[in-house]
Amino acid sequence: MPIDPVATSDPALCTPSAAPSPGPAAEPRVARPARAALPATKFRTPRLRRDTVERAALLARAAAGALDCQVTLVQAPAGFGKTTLLAQLAETLAQRPDCHVAWVTLDSDDGDANRLLAALLSALRQWPLDWPVDVESVLGQVHDDGPAARAALVPVQNALCSYAGERAWLVIDDLHRVTDAAALRLLDLLLDRLPPEIGVLIGSRTEPALSLARWRMRGQLAEVLAQDLQFSLDDAQALLSARGLGNCPADWLNTALARTSGWAAGLQLLAGARAGHDTIGPMPPGAMAIGITAHRHLFEFFASEVLADLPPELRAFVLDCAVLSELSPAMCEAVTGRTDSRAVLEALYRRHLFLSALDDTLPVLRFHDLFLDFLRSELNRQAPERVPTLHARAGQAEPDAQRAVGHWLQAGRWDEALAAMHVSARALLPTGGTALIERWLAQLPPEVRAARPAVAHLQGLCAWSAWNWPLARGCFRQACDRYRTAGEHEAAFDALGMLGACHNGMGDLASARAVLDEVRGQALPPALQVPFDSLQAWSSLANGELGQIGPALTRMAAHVAQAPATRYPNVVDMGYGHLVGLPGTQRPIAQLRALCAPQPDDPREVMVPALDAWLSFWRGDRLAVEPVLRRLQHLQPQMPGALMLAMSTQHLAALHRAALGEHAAALAALRQAHAALASPEAVGQRLGWQRSYLHVQARLHWMAQDTEALGALMPRLRAPRGDHEWPVLDMASAMVQGQYALLRGDPTQALSCLARAVDLHRHRRLPVFLGDARLSLAYAMQEAGDEHRALEWFGQVLAEAVETDTLGPLLMEPAPRLERLWDRWLSSSRRTADEAHAGRAEWLRARWDAWHTGGNEAVRRDALGDLLSEREREVLALLAGGQSNKQIARGLDISPHTVKRHVANILSKLVVDTRTQAAARWLQR
């Protein structure tokens, strides 16, 4: 049933792992990259050339629009100076006090909702924002513009609302590259809900499919169009003078303006092609009407002259480098074989050869789009046989795996392309980037897709990320078979681990066991062994081999320690919480939790608190569990696409509320877990786990002693176990029938059912779902008058609780019944010789009483100082004195933004919602 994807061995194939999952709440995962990074040059404002024409009136008008309106659209065909104006505007706005500007240039890889949002969020990292969740966790929910994606925008909007500066603008250049309707709808929704201090500047060749009409009507849209960007006579004279061509006659310049309709790129080409001539030469057909409709003809005509005017070595350099999207010395050297690439790039930049500088210290340059299109068509015309070779050189040298994929695909080097896709998948899959992987796979020839095992492997990982376990299982089986045929044994084991995870998650326990039999005795490297250790733990639980779970987890922890690359923050936080309470699991789970804790350079994962919350609940540490659970509940509605987070969080919340006696709230929380399980993407989980969650509901009714509600569930709980359900449901069915009989006042029937449940309980347990059958049997015996045996059964459970220092199994019981039984046991134990055991049991009872009575509130108040850092205590003391954030900032000599962050931390740590509540907590001290 359960599945727990962990990391794999081969760095080239280090993707969501092949481990069996943590049951209903498993989360697919991939080996953790340092960060799902995008090329840094996408986020650099292009450098303005020293000879850029200063168009003060146009810039002033654009700046006024950016200040007055939330969205500014700069729309014109290529070559009209959109990017130049945006760069000037960004520089102007960034100079304003307490203002920030972020830049992103979009490209073809940003063409779906997930990748577009990834680019935008990477740009926003530059701003001082308080993120309620890590951006990777947000991206993991975005595959289209559906409900999960729209909900994932909530933490983004909350982060933008935390901006404490005066104004900020996000510049999105080349939006015309995004044509996916879902991506544009998601962007539209984000822009429509921006806080007033955040603005967006958009550059596009075409009118984007956004709510422009609505923004115009609201007065929230400023527009700069092609006619606004047309060069005037003064602008043209300034341009030519800056380029050393200031001696052009006025009639020639007027003719050029008429021919080009003020098109900046056309003017530059005409001026460069004039070369001392007093008249303009013949144009290609269609160029006389130059402007929006025919500028490509003029560009190609003069670009050929510009290219022809270059020295042969520079011409060859430019054509070879046309395969690159960005020109850095290292990449140009790799493609051309020249060792003087830096000097050549500097020379090209000085020639005004339609280049913009992304980094003029290296330098890193980018060709103008139309000039790049021309160069590529010219390269294909002159030397088509060289194109694959040039792309192969680029793919070999490109340090960014995602960019390398495109080069290998263009080179027709399918194996290298697939290897780069696997490396890229490490960053893309956990952040929802499956659409990009699928677009790459679609570019492979059909015969390659049909034969390469790596294709099936990637298809399986994409299906796994979309929670489509049936499809994923077929793909992994195919990949495994093909890897073996090709003799790629380690890759075959990688796919085999994922296949075993699918088997186990879907309840095909025999097939999961067969996978384990296949790897038994194999000398696998530690990283590759981790998934099979995990599968062994889950398979042992499923098959009732409880004694093997702890050793399997211990081996897993040892292998993770030996192979740190397998460390993934979610490895224990979600699914392994469901192993809490099983024999021998406490120590290895704690070890895994420590090994898999986020490192200082890691982003915080949304799911990180989940295991801590489960462990705190099982220990009965109400003071610890409540703030962590509260944080999880706060995050979960913002990210409904995080299926396992929703199920695990609401499952725990339901048990927690029921243990506090808040039964209506407990059922409301569990309904949310059921809703997550009923979602379309949970089809694989429902096969094996739907009734497990029904048994959680039955546990809530049992804790509330609600006979009617429990009876309504009985037909579904008594039904024979299905092929995809774990054998533990046999125990659960017998137990719930006994509990129902006990509620109906039939102790004889109850004893019969519960005796069978306890017998099965020796091998079939799932404590956080089903509780402990021995306690129900003890109640039945007590009601039947056999108090001696009732106390014996209760003593067994209590002894285990004392030994492991846990209250969890006792918290999952109806408090009045347990209290009566515990009182009788304490009275009896005082007459025994085991005073030490009785003392520890009484101490555990005091903790149980404190849980139910809220007796730890005094501890909570006394521990206030320990919860907060010294600086946070200083901030809270001033806050309680009625000071504002700005006053606190002045008093402590820190920034208002830092104060805001401290206040947010204080509210979270004290589990309060408002500053007033926090101040009251401080004053209560």
Automatic annotation (TrEMBL):
Chain ranges passing through the membrane: none
Short name of one Pfam family: WHD_MalT
An annotated GO BP: regulation of DNA-templated transcription
SMART domains: HTH_LUXR (SM00421)
Matches recorded under InterPro entries: AAA_22, P-loop_NTPase, Sig_transdc_resp-reg_C-effctor, TPR-like_helical_dom_sf, Tscrpt_reg_LuxR_C, WH-like_DNA-bd_sf, WHD_MalT
Region of interest (Disordered), residue spans: 1-37
Name of protein: Serine/threonine-protein kinase PknK
Organism: Variovorax paradoxus
Lineage: Bacteria, Pseudomonadati, Pseudomonadota, Betaproteobacteria, Burkholderiales
